[in-house]
Amino acid sequence: MRVAVASWTSRYAGGIESYLGAVMPAMRHAGLDVSFFHEADEPAQRARIDLAEEIPVFSVASSGVERAVAQLAKWKPDVVYIHGLHEVSTANRLLDIAPSVTFVHTYVGTCISGTKTQTRPKPAACSRQFGPACLALYLPCGCGGNSPVTMMRLYRTQQRRHQNLSHQAAVITHSEHMRNELVRHGIPASVVSYPVSVPHAAGPDFSRGSIDILFAGRMENVKGGTLLLDALDRVRRDLDRPLRVQFAGDGPARQQWEELAKGVQARNANVAVEFSGWSNELQLSATMQASRLLVVPSVWPEPFGSVGMAAARHGVPAAAFAVGGIPQWLHDGVNGHLAATPATAEGLGVAIVKCLRDERHYADLSRGAIEMAARFTMQQHIPEVMRVFERVVHG
After folding, report:
1. Nearest 5°: CA angle at 188, between 195 and 137?
2. pLDDT for res 279
3. CA 212 to chain centre
4. Which of 290, 293, 328, 138 is nearest to 209 (CA)?
5. Domain extents for the chain?
6. Degrees (nearest 5) of the Cα angle 60, 61, 66?
């Protein structure tokens, strides 16, 4: 079977690209003939997705959309496997080439901003169904920017994305939360086990001591970094020992978080907070190996939160709020602890302390993390995806 994988960019920009870099070789190993179609070649400072020389590449960035689509059509795929294309018009054109299967990684077609989060009066997950009423709430609830023009543009784009999803031969996603969200919006969808691949790292560097608490991800307000920083005073007091905290990643909120971290450290000399910047997958893997606990303080409903299972592969448990797809992999008292909602720094601090206070309990959580991670492998994922491909191609 010929499968054309289609995505926004050819570079490692986030979790989608990490997935593609792992799944395309696995598909070829399973006997599929694979090609890759992409729109952009950015961010320029990031590495390109690893592709075998045998994989044909059709690039809108280098060839233009007309030629890239024509080249893909000439390749004659049996199915197009779509991930996060930015241009809805391009995604619609791929519908004419072959049956399309879209993997929905986030809230496309179900939210104006795509975050499913309100920021006023404080950040909180939104449970509304996407529709005209969202236009009345977008500005007062802080669902995105402050421009009515941008609001209307985004609304129309999400309407078109919703229509595109309704014309897919199949829609799949990685959590029951996301499946329920899609079904609620009239999009039949199914869940496939999500593979979390972790590259082999040379080993952690313990020369400066282990990392007690790790945040790994994009630094923006909905990711809850301020809640984690506000929780550190309580965590340090309750654990009664020095803490080393590392923020791995980058984003628009980084400067604000760094300023808040200076205040935390000024109040308590026994708390060290470091910002290490963006890491490639190998570097992040080594950082996870050196960490005791991953904290995912997101206040937005994470569609899945694959960083949790990436850390779990190293036996690192997690503390997080019970939002979005996180409860699918984080089971309270098994491989970490869930913080109470609505999200507060106090609740997050309680969950962190539960994970780290007792060494015997921590060892149980660490074993539980490894056992949970074993449920999210490429060996489970590929047969499930291939069954979807067979169904849409052969009926």
Report:
1. 95
2. 86
3. 23
4. 290
5. 2-195+377-394, 211-373
6. 30
Q: Taking the domain 211-373, which CATH number applies?
A: 3.40.50.2000
Greatest Cα-to-Cα distance within the chain, rounded to the nearest angstrom: 65
**Token output for 390:** 């067979």
pLDDT at position 205, please? 56
In angstroms, the CA 42 to CA 380 distance is 31
pTM, two decimal places: 0.90
Strands 124-125 and 117-118: antiparallel
Residues 340-357 as b/e (b if ≥16 CB within 10 A, e otherwise) read: eeebbbebbbbbbbbbbe
Structure tokens at 355: 């994970």
In angstroms, the first-to-last Cα distance of the chain is 14
Name the fold adopted by 2-195+377-394.
Rossmann fold (3.40.50)
Do the domains at 2-195+377-394 and 211-373 have one common CATH topology? yes
- For residue 350, give both structure tokens: 């309680």
Backbone φ and ψ of 110, nearest 5°: -130, 5
pLDDT of the residue at 280: 83
Distance from C-alpha of 71 to C-alpha of 66, rounded to nearest angstrom: 9
Q: Residue ranges of the chain with pLDDT lower than 50?
A: none
Judge whether 298 and 222 are in contact, CB under 8 Å: yes
pLDDT at residue 204 in the model: 56
In angstroms, the CA 162 to CA 167 distance is: 9
- What single DSSP character describes residue 122? S
Region for residue 348 given its phi and psi (left: phi exceeds 0; alpha: psi -120 to 50; beta: otherwise): alpha
Q: Determine the pLDDT at residue 333.
A: 98
Alpha carbon distances (Å) from 190 to 83, 103, 330: 15, 10, 21
